[in-house]
Every structure is written in C-alpha cells, then in structure tokens.
Amino acid sequence: MSVEYIQVAEDYSDEPIELPLEPDDNTLLLSTLQGQFPGATGLKYRNPENKAIRGIRLNDLKLHAPGCGWDGLVYYCVFPKDSVSENKRKSDDVMENVSKSKVSKCQTNKCTDLIVLGLAWKTNEQALREYFETFGEVLMVQVKKDAKGQSKGFGFVRFSNYETQLRVLGQRHHIDSRWCEVKVPNSKEGQIQQVPCKVFVGRCTEDLTQEDLKEYFCKFGEVTDVFIPRPFRAFSFVTFLDPEIAQSLCGEDHIIKGVSVHVSNAAPKADGNRNQNYGNSMNSRSQNYAGNSAPYNNFSDSNYRNEFGGRGSGGGNSNGSSSNMSSGGGQNSNFMPNNPNSGGNAWGSGGNNGNNSSSNNNNRGNLDMPNLQALGINSGGNPGNQSGSGGNMNNPLGVGLNALNLPMNPAIVAAALNQWGLLNGMQGQGNNDQGPNNQPWNQQQQRNQNAPDKTNFMRVKRMKYDYDWSD
DNA sequence: GTTGAGCGTT
C-alpha cells in the first residue's frame, strides 16, 4: 500500500514539509507531526470555502482528515498558545544539522498583497483565483472594477505561503490569453525585505558543473539558477528562491566534489559604473534614477528567465533560445562583473546579445523577463525614469544606491578586488580576463570563519564584493 | 459592443 503525504508547515511563512499519513486510516500521527515540529500540538488549515482557519480533529494521538479529506491543502502547526516562541526556539534547536537550520525562515518573509497587472477585461475573480491556486493556497483575490462593474484590468492576490509568493513573483503569467505581471504594489514598497537571492561562489574549479552546484546547493533550498561564467573564471553564482537561504550561506566554506568553495554575497551593482557598457536592449536602465531602489538586478539573464518559465499552468517559456542551466556565451552579460574603480569595464562584457532579447514590442514591460521589482529585489515605481517608451519597467537597472544605502568607497573596493587579482591583472586585458585564479584566500578565510550575522554580512559584502556583478 | 498604463471602498 502506498503511503500518502500531506504538506505541513510550521507557520504561514514557512516552507511545508511532507509528512506521511498512516496507510490504514489516513490519519497523521501526532508523533509524526512532532517528529518534525517539536512542541506542535495540533494542525489547522484555511478552509477554502470561507477562508476561515479550521482546526484538525485530534483523537487518540491521531490527527484526522477533514470531512473532505486532506485534499492537497497546506496544514499549519498549532503550538500551545503561551509558549509559541519557546516551542519555536526548541524546534530550531532540534534541527542541528546545517541544511535543516537553513530552512527556517525569518520573520521578514511575510506575504503581501500582490498586484496583478494586465488582466484581460473578461478575467474575473474566480478565474484569477483558479489560476493562482495552481501555485499555492490563495487567501484573497480581487479584480478592481469601475462603477459599472467593468474590470479595470488589474487586481490583487495574496498567498498564504511566502515561497509561493516568491515563485509567483518570479515569473510571467498567462491568464485568459493575456500576459500579466505580478508585482509588489507600490503601496507596499519598502515593506518587504530586499535581500539578494544570489550568492557568489568563489574558488570553483573548472570541473564543477552547473549540475554539481545545483545538486549541492539545492539541499539548502530551491535553487533557481546557477551561472558559471565562460570562459572559466573560478567563480559562479547560485540563485536561490529564498533570499534568506542565500544570505544564510554567505561567509561559509563548502566542499563540493572535494573542492572547497567559498560562498559570499553577490554584491549589487556599484554606483560608479551604471552608465557604462549597457547594451542596446537595456539602455534605458541607465537613466533610471529611482533613489531608493535596490540595484539587485540579477534576473535579467536568459538563464534565469528560462528557469522561471514553464512553471505553473501559464508560466510557459515562450523563448526557446536557451535551456535551463545552460550558460551559452553571450548571454548573461549582466552577470559580468564590472570594475567600479576603473573607467571602463575591465572584464569585457562578452556582448549583450543574449540579454533578454528585448524587442520591447510590449511597452508595458518586457514579459520575457521575470520582474525584479516584483521580487522585492528592486522596488518599483521608477519615479525618476527618464527613459522613453522603450523603458523596461520590469527591470529598472542602474538605479542609484546599493540596497543597504551604504556609501561606497572605491578604494576599499579596489583593495578587495586587488586581493583577488581582479584589478591589476584585469585592466587592459579586454575580454580575455581569467578572473580570480590565484587569490590569497587565507586572510579572508580567517576573517570569515564565523558565519556572518547581518552586520557581518554587510561588512563582508562591503569589503569583498561590492562591485557590480549584475551587468 | 471600444481600451491596455497603472496601484487597492478598506
């Protein structure tokens, strides 16, 4: 008899874990629940009918399915009320091994209402709900209407699960034959975390493939992209669905296929070179001076686009030019690290030809790309956008300051680069640079032996990688 | 009956 599973999460912002049901009576043993969620005393779920929270019947240490069966919903743990925090802490303590502890979420990962733009006039709330329920539990949908009841072509959706939100934000949506955008509403700007999903993986060897990296890092959380620059440069980028997981790995050394790699923050674009080296298709970015936006523009490479495409019922990838996890030459040019201390791009970009194929035939934004503002990596709004109609509203690159609004010190950046041999060795080499091959790693390892907290995270980022990986 | 950048009665 095959074992069935239900999805259980610690709370609404946590990733569900599949727990096995008892084959004989389809119940969930309390002990099974507590094995994963120590301290949990029950389960609850949101009733799809009326959106109310419902409790699960507990009898004889068994949790019984609702009347309609477990039904593919996500169930949430119930903890004794006056000791929730204690139990949560206990739960975290129990998860001693590294990979488990990475999975726990921080409180900043809350769901928020998301705006859905570009809805077909005919799309109603039921259709919207049905579409988004393919991604996860939907708490609310709205289609905004005028006084006559006619749709205004946009609406809102809210999910119960933060990862669902990330997933939905990271891709395009085809609803009732229209490509729609899902973004964090302007009204929620600044209320969501802006932490990069991408990490820099240094000290890679040439035989570490994308698959190796993905296979290794996926144990910490869903990996949405792995990018290995070509020609070989001894580093790569790994992008996680969950920025918290990405951040939690920063500062650590990991051994992959016997290779000791170092994970650190893939720093945002530096301010000093935002007007340089922009390709044809994206040049409107350079005039986008939204002051408070975070310049984590890491998603406009075609790998990423493809990785996100094809999810859900409508997220198909209409761009057939490249496949997931591939890193053909020329694409991903926005990953090419610039040198903020030199006049030009010391690395050479390899061209922008692969970059998002932005013909901008849709001036509502380039829906070939997952939109970054939506992911909370960039804030939207673009109040300072001076670009013309070709502006890419999905990808307001080139925005001014770094995400943490830290002042840049080019000398420090240069020093850091120099440690890698990224400065002296790179300038004047055009496109044939080879990246950090013979770095003096010892000092940095000394400094980074402790996993960084947020403060350290910023320090490491400032010291080491505060230059532009995004363009 | 048409339209297609935007941002929500609370």
Short description:
This protein is of the alpha+beta class.
Describe it.
- Residues 309-318, 378-391 have a biased composition (Gly residues).
- This protein is of the alpha+beta class.
- The chain has helices at 30-36, 84-94, 98-103, 125-132, 162-169, 210-217, 243-249, 302-308, 372-375, 410-419, 441-447, 454-464; strands at 5-9, 17-20, 28-29, 42-46, 53-55, 58-59, 62-63, 74-78, 114-117, 138-145, 151-159, 173-175, 178-183, 198-202, 223-227, 235-240, 253-256, 259-265.
- The strands form 4 sheets. It has a 5-stranded mixed β-sheet with strand order 2-1-8-4-5, with helices on one face. Strands 10-11-9-13-12 form a 5-stranded antiparallel β-sheet.
- The longest helix is centred in the first third of the chain and has 11 residues, at 84-94.
- The chain is flat.
- The structure holds one DNA strand of 10 nucleotides.
Radius of gyration: 23 Å
Low-confidence stretches: 82-107, 269-471
> Care to count the β-strands?
18
Separation, N- and C-terminal Cα atoms: 53 Å
Topology as a string of helices (H) and strands (E) = EEEHEEEEEHHEHEEHEEEHEEHEEHHHHH
Broad structural category = alpha+beta
Largest sheet, if any?
A: 5 strands, mixed
Strand content: 15-25%
Proportion in helices = 10-25%
By DSSP (H or I, 4+ residues per run), the number of helices equals 12
* Biggest sheet, spatial arrangement of strands: 2-1-8-4-5
Mean pLDDT: 62
Q: Based on Cα principal axes, name the global outline.
A: flat
